[in-house]
Amino acid sequence: MTSSTAAAEPRSLSGFVRHLDDGNFMLCCCDDCGSYSVPNAEQCETCGSLALQWRAAAGGAKLVSWAYDNVSGASDSVLQPVVIAQFSEGPWWWGRLLLERAVTLQVDVELRVDVVSDPDGSAVPIFRLAT
Q1: Where are the beta strands (DSSP E) in 5-102?
Q2: pLDDT tens column, 66-101
Q3: Integer Cα distance of 16 and 99 in angstroms
Q4: Domain boundaries, the chain
Q5: Which of 6, 60, 66, 77 has the smallest set of CB atoms within 10 Å of its CB?
């Protein structure tokens, strides 16, 4: 989907999910001041304008905070980080952090947002370490 097509689409939960299905995490961009807001914003978080359009997140983010969720697996329990991240565009969002290796987490660690398929087949945004 092109950015102009995305901008023309009405903002809604179903639209957000459709973009996730296409592999895109969308943010709201204000036509009046150019600031970005979270996907479910009703108005610009900076100037209050109602003129918001979808824009695909560039993908970069920084770790703000995290907690561990004890997830039961097939044979044992695994601690999975749930994080709050700030996108390079400004808005904060939360999600799971998928780790391919053991790391010590620190505030401001560079992350990337990705979209993966959940076991039920739905598209889910997650974060990964950028490096």
Answers
A1: 26-30, 36-37, 52-56, 60-72, 77-87, 92-98
A2: 998 876 655 555 678 999 999 999 999 999 999 887
A3: 25
A4: 3-56, 60-129
A5: 77
